[in-house]
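Risk register update: the risk of archive-format incompatibility is retired. Evidence:
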Amino acid sequence: ELPNLGRNFIELAQLLPGSGPDNSTVQFFNSTKFGGVADQRNGFTTLIDGGDIDDAIWGSTTVNFTEEAVQEFRVLRNQFDAEYGSAMAAVVSVVSRAGTNNFHGTGMYYGRDKVLESKNFFAPTKPDYNQKRFGGSFGGPIKVNRTHFFAAYEFNKVNTSKIIALPESNPFASKENGIFPAGGTNHMFDAKVDHQISTKHALTVRYLYDKQFLKRTQSVTSDSNQIDEFSKTHSIIGQETWTHSQRLVNAFRVHYYRQNVGNTVYSEDTGIVRPSVTTGKPTYFPQFFPRNKTTIYDTLYLNLAKHDIKFGGSIATASTSFDSHVFEHGQFTFGTDAPFNSVDPTTWPLFFQIAKPGYFPWYSKQLAFFVDDSWRITPRFTLNMGLRYDLDTNLRDNDFYYKLLKDPAFAGLENFVSPNRGNDYSGIQPRLGFAWKLRSNGNFVLRGGFGKYMTRNRPWFQVYAESTFLTGAVTITDPNLLKFFPDVTAVLGGKTIDEYLAAGGTKSPFMIGNDSKLPYALNGTIGFGWQINPKSTLEMDYIHNRGIHELGSTDENLPVSGPVSDTNPRPVAGYSTVAVMQNYTSSQYDALEAQFRTRLSRIETVLVSYTLSRSFRNGVSFYGDFRGTQRTPFEKGYNDTDQKHNLTMSAATKLRYGFEVSGIAKLISGTPFWVQAGFDIDGDNSIQYDKPPGLPHTVGRGDVKSQLTIINDFRDSLGLLPIPASLLKLDPFISIDGRITKVIHLRGEQHLDLQLEGFNLTNHVNFTPFSVNNSLNSPAFLVRAGARDGRQAQWGIRYTF
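Archived output:
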């Protein structure tokens, strides 16, 4: 009933407290966040019919499941029983539709055009835009009361534009700004067969296919740094349910998942990173990831007079391969926008990185076991107790490092890698919850709980780490070589990469740490649910989420103090930067989450969700990032997903003459901006998060006056103009969406729905924080350069029979 322009089921999860649009980062397939986890990729998992569709690389949802095939979905937030794992904050669980004893189906078409679209805030003119979406579903009996089928298909094609709108203060604006073709296509197919083998045995088989192509997906400062992305997914699930008795049921399920995801680039030129622009081939692209995963689940359900017990587990075999072209043509990083001058060292690059292409497979098995009991101690008090255990058998990729330690080409590696690395066996996750009916009629329930919730491994870590060794990743910081920019061969001392390494050139690997662990959260909740009257309910909970062992990297080959130089060299010769992924990041999320539901005399459904929250982070939000001062780390501050206030309202009603009206309003506080100096302050050969003393890693929330003073004093020392206080004012997310439907009833159960829906009806400018320049030494520091789409409209027709 509600407007949903993307027809993406997971976006409707944003109606719930504690969730909302991820307004701080670019995500490939998903833009919904849950809670305050430092890296949202660890925050939630998505299941369709019990099988996960989590991406092995980016960590978010890989499949846009057609709404025509969704029977229901639910979001388990903050507290979920021991049957569910692989997430620190939430589980999104989808059940696909099935056939019945009657033939039913749908057919639909939705369209959009630039005539009904508003101009993007940064576009000089309204670019071309059109979208065509069509599909349908059909299901019914193969044999009445015995065998049923259901199938659905949806195709979506979008032609749009990507805008680069660097502000006039950016010295590269006139060269790089423009409107570039974008968009994509998406094929979605679902088929399901249910068969009642006997009175005690039932079989279900479901097949899912999803093929996506997205053109120009990145938020970039130069089109040469842009990429296209694709994904092709097959998911097959078979489940056999054995009903031994009314009290005892066993569910046996097998899920085969195959995906190939990757991207292509727009430029093969050597990459150049400056404070105000990045040009040339992107750092990590192109890259391709064929993936296969087979998971076997079994769960036994036992229902007794006072106990609902379930126990079971799963075993998965997984393979992920990496066709790597990281740093294939090299990348120079500068600390200034000034043009290169061979006689002026202040204009030379800070460092240069290059690597060879390669193909890297990784294999592992994942095991999970759980037991869970809901014990009705009294008719008014229920206690839920659960215990879960998860294990990834190849988390630290030990065999790979054992081989490297025996290879003379990697002499010195023993300073960073132990031959006795072991594995992470800390996957025990106890969980406890309760529900207490304070009134005999059950209309007021006090509830709460506490538990440990561990995330899953993303095989990207292992395959990328392997690639940095076997592709000969090199980082050069010697000014006597960097002065030869842009001649890559000269910067390598007149050699190829192989010749450079063979001659004793330094290597620059990324590694999985000796004691690498899976991040987890300790979640505690306390709250109540109140049935105010037959039409209204109120729920309110206090949430405390503590993220532990979250990820970040550290250069383990730094001198104890002082800048890296010829007179203060790196401790281990033959290696430059040695990035080791470690578990030093932590996060904390505290929130008051409330939800009110009611039905009014003329409005059938009203839902209001409000969250007052605070999200902190001590560390970094990305596994490969270094802290600004690695030897004396201080990375405390608000998380860059922090949203203090989050108010969401939705309503739907039926009017006369077959009209239905619905809407969603979202009013959300802005997220703070992460910042860095833009050059290496402390001599560790890294510019990541370097910043002046006293400045937190995000600005715009907290002591903003002090932040402004530190920023402008620092810019003054660089000879740059001060920024106004207005640039530190955070940008709220405001959107009001609506739908009007005219229902035309035909014969029997047939009806035709004519729909018109709009997104961001007030045309509010929602700036995108991830497009803001975060380098303090840039003339365009914190100047807004990107915004989400303005007002959009979509019309549609849907036939149901």
